[in-house]
Amino acid sequence: MAELKDLLEERRKMVDKKATQHREQRDDWNEKTKEFTTTRNELNNEVRELIVQVREQRDLRDQMNEMVREKKKERDEANQAVKAAKEAIRSTFPEKAPELDKRGRPIRPKTVQSVTRTMERMEREFNEGKHSGKKAEPAYFKKMKELSADLKRLKAEEKNVEAAEGSTELRTAVAAQETAHNAVKEAAEAAQSAHDLMIEWNAEVDKQREKAEAAHRRLRTSKKEADKEHSMYIVSLRCLHSIQDILRAMRSASAGGGQRPAATDETQDLMAKLLAGEVLSTEEVMQLQRFD
């Protein structure tokens, strides 16, 4: 009997130690669960705030894009006004008959820009050897001479137009054109800035959402581990109380008692609370593990 009692006492101490370990590990996991829950909730709040900012930037970008479209219409109208004013000035110059092609169709009027591009192209082709030969080379120089004369004439006409730009109508049209162009530029820059910021915050949303999901995964893991340790703690307590019941019965038998003593009502109530999932105070937990 003494050997059995010693063995049970040894087992009781071992189970008590295991119960303490499981309780401490459960509490550690519960603390981590609280930390992960707080982290996840904070990150989710940040994600929601960033999403609001992304939407605001998207709305701002769309407003700026709409403004760009409106300002472009105003700029087009200003461009037309400048064009009309210049044409009105040119109409005061001596009228020239339109040039015709071989089929008698009107040729698009030459401009300083178009003549310059043609001369640059022909010069590039000449350097590449495309106008070499007895006939091609003289034709090239003749054409370049004609184009040079055209360019000189067109530049003179442009100077005459520029000299006439002091007219109230043209001056007003040019000022409106410049204002409209600047407005388009500013609206386009604002729209691009809002778009870039929206993209940047979108990336931040993805980054924070990934962190929140990682915290949630850690939360689930810690909760699972806490539940596992709690289950092991319950099993250890049951084993501990079973051993205590046996030891009490052995003491009662040695003392000549005829009835097996049971655990106190308070201990049974605490076990019932624990099995029901209620949280016990530190004092109550220690009482459950205390050997009566």
Overall description:
Helix 1 packs antiparallel against helix 4 and helix 2 runs antiparallel to helix 3. With 292 residues, the chain is mainly α. The radius of gyration is 47 Å and the shape is rod-shaped. The protein is built from six helices and no strands. The model has no long low-confidence stretch (mean pLDDT 79). The longest helix is centred in the first third of the chain and has 89 residues.
Number of strands: 0
Mean pLDDT: 79
Biggest sheet statistics: none
Secondary-structure element series: HHHHHH
Oligomer: single chain
- End-to-end separation in angstroms reads 20 Å
Rough outline: rod-shaped
Q: Flag low-confidence runs.
A: none
Radius of gyration: 47 Å
Structural class by SSE content: mainly alpha
Strand portion, in percent? under 5%
| Number of DSSP helical runs | 6
Percentage of residues in helical conformation: over 70%
Brief overview:
82% of the residues lie in helices and 0% in strands. The protein has helices at 2-90, 112-127, 136-163, 168-254, 265-275, 282-289.
